[in-house]
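re: the backbone from monday

yeah here it is again, tokenized this time
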């Protein structure tokens, strides 16, 4: 499944599967609309060269795993992966210092405008799905939070765990820095587009830092991609729904989102071959192995 983002003042997302134009490689990608099916039917092309990928911290481990596996499939290609956050990755794409930006949010309209000014045409490909997990310390007795209350927590309107049925203790808010796509997703979906995060929130430099601090702090709450859930922290259900592969795919989990890779124009050459492989069985198996949600089951 591919999501196209067109240039201009309107952001257009197409959730139909497209066929990559792979001149001379003899490969194809097939699928159905609605995001249910996308499968590579032939071996990936042996396109050589270097490909620089940067962006989403949520996707960095997944992206690194893809790059390492692809090196075995196509030894003529070298894929370099960096994190730094979705915003930084998109900025690098606009500056033409990377060929692909990883993003855990859709590109913003103002970023499309900046890209146009720089002669860049951002084209997005959805490569996996994610459920944003809300995590607390394993000693915390709270098991569920409503999406509405989560917004109040991150706006600083609820500040004590007893207001959520927990202990009489202050809530320690953990979140990402503003360059993070996850920060932007929570802003839009939880805090509110016209609202502000609580000033008390600690802006952590990485998703793993949120996991580590939550594991140590009995009063902490944080948000991470599904692939970062671990036994060291406790995920809360949101509106009574757990973040699982099934609830993300059927959209019953209220904090589901796409993970996307953005290129300058229609992917060609090595970029097209790499994305085709990621959307195929081997690439999607790695999505599941890394704890995220494949586009196909």
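seq for it, each position gets an aa:
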């Amino acid at each position: 499944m591919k999501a196209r983002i067109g240039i201009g003042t309107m952001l257009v997302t197409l959730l139909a599967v497209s066929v990559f134009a792979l001149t001379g490689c003899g490969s194809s990608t097939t699928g159905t609309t609605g995001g249910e099916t996308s499968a590579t039917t032939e071996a990936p092309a042996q396109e050589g060269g270097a490909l620089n990928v940067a962006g989403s911290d949520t996707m960095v481990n997944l992206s690194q795993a893809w790059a390492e596996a692809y090196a075995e499939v196509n030894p003529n290609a070298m894929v370099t992966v960096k994190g730094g956050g979705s915003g930084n990755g998109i900025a690098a794409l606009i500056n033409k210092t990377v060929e692909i930006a990883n993003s855990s949010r859709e590109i913003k309209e103002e970023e499309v405008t900046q890209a146009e000014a720089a002669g860049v045409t951002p084209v997005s490909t959805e490569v996996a799905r994610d459920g944003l997990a809300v995590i607390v310390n394993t000693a915390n007795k709270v098991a569920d939070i409503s999406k509405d209350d989560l917004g109040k927590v991150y706006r600083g309107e609820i500040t004590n765990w007893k207001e959520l049925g927990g202990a009489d203790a202050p809530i320690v808010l953990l979140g990402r820095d503003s360059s993070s796509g996850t920060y932007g997703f929570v802003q839009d979906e939880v805090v509110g587009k016209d609202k502000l995060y609580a000033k008390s929130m600690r802006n952590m430099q990485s998703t793993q830092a949120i996991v580590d601090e939550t594991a140590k702090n009995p009063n902490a709450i944080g948000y991470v991609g599904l692939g970062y859930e671990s036994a060291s922290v406790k995920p809360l259900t949101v509106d009574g729904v757990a973040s699982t592969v099934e609830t993300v795919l059927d959209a019953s989990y209220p904090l589901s989102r796409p993970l996307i890779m953005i290129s300058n124009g229609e992917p060609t050459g090595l970029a097209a071959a790499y994305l085709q492989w990621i959307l195929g069985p081997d690439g999607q198996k790695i999505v599941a192995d890394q704890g995220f949600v494949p586009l196909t089951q």
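Confidence is low (pLDDT under 50) at residues 1-43. The longest strand covers residues 122-131.
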